[in-house]
Amino acid sequence: MTSEVVDEGVVAHGQPGRRFEGRVALVTGASRGIGLAIAQRLVAEGARVCVTARKPDPLAAAVELLGGPEVAVAAAGRADDPEHRAAAVAATVAAFGRVDVLVNNTGINPVYGPLSHVDPSAAAKVFDVNVLSALAWTDEMRAAGMGSAPGAAIVNVASMAGLGPAVGIGVYGASKAALLHVTAQLALELAPAIRVNAVAPAVVKTRFATALYEGREEAVTATYPLGRLGRPEDVAAAVAFLASDEAAWITGQTLTLDGGVGLAGGIG
């Protein structure tokens, strides 16, 4: 078997199949970066999607990029706003008639510094968005019929920071650790109707993660055995697998996406 080699010696991702033909997904935090890449991968494999984020204009651009209203709709709002969540799920069902896949990708990290010095209100906001909203999105999707048909799946986008302590991003890491526990708990409670898994990426080259490598990308990259930082499409491919029927006997698991950096004890 041969592989196509592209820039930087990276093996190209395989062409997507049609694993999501007839299925409908909702992807949060999907106007750019990892969320948009996930939505693109799902649409490329036959899904119709609802994408959410805070700002309407980037969402409108995302819908156009995804192929327009025949395959994508958008719902603007805050992930921790109950009215937004209800409206987004209602819009998805109104447009496409069903819900099958939920990707909880929304995450914020407004706090940098020691966990021991964090402002409690800031920590509460991080947990509201990064953890509690994932639970609330799950409830909304179930109320709309998710799990009533075969193939229902939830994938939570966590972080390698949730697997161990990391300097400066303690609150964010703690929230992602909580999300990983929520993933396992929901997998137990929602089986067999809905599978629930997570991905835990290390540093992925997005605007969100810029502070983790900007101005020192070469040095950061040098710590990764595979010789590069992550790309949004790396995460999208893993999410698509976990959400597909190819992962039909997998639930409650976390797939670490780290370019090998964890082999030497790093956490990205």
Short description:
The protein is of the alpha/beta class and 268 residues long.
Protein architecture, described:
This protein has 268 residues and is α/β, with parallel strands linked by helices. It has a single domain, classed as NAD(P)-binding Rossmann-like Domain (Rossmann fold). 37% of the residues lie in helices and 13% in strands. It contains seven helices and seven strands, in the order βαβαβαβαβαβααβ. The chain has helices at residues 33-44, 56-66, 82-96, 120-143, 170-190, 217-221, 232-243; strands at 24-27, 48-53, 72-76, 101-104, 153-157, 195-201, 254-257. The chain has a seven-stranded parallel beta sheet with strand order 3-2-1-4-5-6-7, with helices on both faces. α2 links the parallel β2 and β3. The protein is globular, with a radius of gyration of 18 Å. The two termini are 32 Å apart.
Number of domains: 1
The spatial strand order of the largest sheet comes to: 3-2-1-4-5-6-7
Number of helices: 7
Q: In CATH, what is the homologous superfamily?
A: NAD(P)-binding Rossmann-like Domain
Strand coverage percent? 5-15%
Instruction: State the shape.
Output: globular
Sheet with the most strands, sense and barrel status? 7 strands, parallel
- Which CATH first-tier class would you pick? Alpha Beta
Low-confidence stretches: 1-12
What is the helix fraction of residues, given as a range?
25-40%
DSSP, total strands: 7
Could you report the average pLDDT, rounded to the nearest whole number? 91
As a whole number of angstroms, the C-alpha radius of gyration is 18 Å
N-to-C SSE string, H for helix and E for strand: EHEHEHEHEHEHHE
Going by helix content, strand content and strand pairing, the class is: alpha/beta
Distance between the termini: 32 Å
> Could you say what the CATH topology is called?
Rossmann fold
> Architecture in CATH?
3-Layer(aba) Sandwich
